[in-house]
Structure formats: C-alpha cells, structure tokens
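step 3/5: co-fold with iron/sulfur cluster
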Amino acid sequence: MDYDFKKAINSGGIIFTEDTNNKPIGLGLISGGLDSLIACLVLKLQNIEVVGLNFKSPFCICEKAYKNAECGLNLFYDKLGIKTHFLQKEDDYLDIVKNPKFGYGKNLNPCIDCRIYILKKAKKFANQIKADFIFTGEVLDQRPKSQNLKALKIIEKESDLKGKLLRPLSALLLEPTTLEENGLIDRTKLLGIKGRSRKKQLELARSHELLNEYNACGGCLLTEKEFANRMRDYLKFSEHPTMEEVNFLKFGRHFRFNGAKIIVGRNELENNSLLYLKGPDDVIMEALYVKGPLTLIQGKIEEEVIKFAGKLTLRYSDLLESLGKVRYGKDFNELSKSIIIEKATQEELIPYLL
Ligand code: SF4
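step 4/5: write tokens
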C-alpha cells in the first residue's frame, strides 16, 4: 500500500498505512538528529517498515537529544511510529580510538573506523531481527573527512555491506545499491542531497510536520580538544582501557603527576560523581577546616603524589592562607591520614594539567 499524501495533508499530519504484512524491514542507524529522521521519513513514505538502532557510549553528548521533544529520538517514536533499539559501544571500541585504520578527524575522533564499527554491529543486529537491509542518514560531503565519496565507499566495503548499505538522503548521487536494483527500494523516491546545508532536510521535516526548527544537538566528546587530550593520556597510561573508566574523564580537573592521575572536582555534582566512580584502590582527599573539592588519586600512589594532590586540593579550596591541611584515605568515611602543605601556585600546576 502506498502512502496516502492527500489523506495526510487533509489530516494535517503524517499517516502511514497500517498494513505491516510483507513490508521490507530497514534497520536505520539513528543518532537522534535531523538527517536520520529524514532518512527514516523517506523510507516510510515508500512503505518500508523502519526499525531504529541507536548506539550509546560515554563519548556521546546526547542527553538533550533524549529530552528535547523538538530534537531527538522522541520524534521517531511519536511521529513516525518507529521502535528504536539501543546498543552500547563496548570496550573493543577503544582499540579503534587508540589505533584507527583510517585515521582521525580534527581531534581524537576516528570517524571512518567508528562508522565501520557500528555498521558491523548493526549487521549482526539486523540478522537477529530479520531486517532486509541497513540504512543511515549519511549525506555526501556533509563532513569533509568521513562523508566524502571515497570514505563512504570505504565504510561500505569494510563493514562488508558493499552494495547493500542504503543512504536514502544522497542515494541519487551514489551508485545504486542491490536493494534498488532488485526493486526492494524505489530509487525514484530517494533523495540526492549533498553538502553541509540542512535546508532540504528541514523543508521535508516542516512539510511533514515533524519539526519546525532544528538546532543541532548531541555530539561526540572525541571531537573536543580538552577531552581528546585526557583521552590520549588515558590510553597511554592504561594497559586495559575500559568504557566504564572513560567516564572519569568527563568530571573534574585532570592532572598527570609521576605517572599517577589526580582528579579534582569542580563542584558538588562532580565531587559526588568522582566518589561514585571511585575504585577500591583509589585514594580520596579533601581539605580540612575549609570548604573545598574532593580529589581522587589513581595509579601508583607515592609520597610525592600525595603531596602534589594536597597542594592541588588546597589550591581549589577556600583556603586564604598559603599553608593548609588535607586528609586522605581509601575509605571516604575514614580519611585517617593527613598532611600539612602549601597550596599550589598556577605555575606549579600548569605542566601537569591535562
Ligand atoms: S563524531 Fe564521534 S560518534 Fe560520530 S562518527 Fe566520529 S567518532 Fe563516531
């Protein structure tokens, strides 16, 4: 059954047929952004059953995408009637962050390898749910490094989806997939969008009453300079990096001193997060008699490290004098050791700041 444009316009919204029998099933990689939304729309309009797949990771800055009804996955649920599944990027993802076959983007973002990684996982998932094909919201030349023609071909080949990966937004500018050739997908109903402008996508979103304005939300911490520095340091010093530990990199001020990591909370929320993430061998420190941060010390904890952590803890506390006292220990409820030390000067801490 075809999409009934007239009925949809008359009802002021989007309507899809209820006939789900024998529809081809497309598994879409959904980020929560405008492009994947329109990729889904384009396929829904040709009566394809669309299932969403979203990948989560500690690198994802996506809370807004989940919360804002005008910007994110809610739209897929509410207006297109799409069920979205969630998968985690696992620890093996860190191998590609550490050593990407196809290099980095502007910071530590291994975008081409990242796409290959998630497409390989999506392929397995597609088999499980018996989806007929996989599609993405990629747009030719929207990103100079990871979405040029060469990169799109590499991604397709390396994820073992050659000729089988549909990009509905730019399909008319790409070679037809086998899906189009064998008639599963109607190529004439696909789009030929290219470049960074989202004008066409927004027009389509508006005309189908999906949204009126689009403010890009979400993002990836690996593209951010400060986080990338911390991540590089983490990968260098950690023998077995884990996604769980990556969460530490999101909170506090980070210092690397004599091989140990010192993290100083910037506010109560960060102090609590550090406490929550603390491992059994990590040491906690806090200033005595004055209000101040919670400091977490990880790695080889020698006397010099404790002293430097003490200087930092006092530096970011309310201490007015130069000399102060800190207490520390592995159990937050029993910080039994203490030292008196001078707070750090800006010059002292800069060489160790990540
Ligand atoms: S920006 Fe981040 S999440 Fe997006 S493709 Fe690149 S590495 Fe992957």
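step 5/5: annotate
The chain has two domains: 5-207, 251-352.
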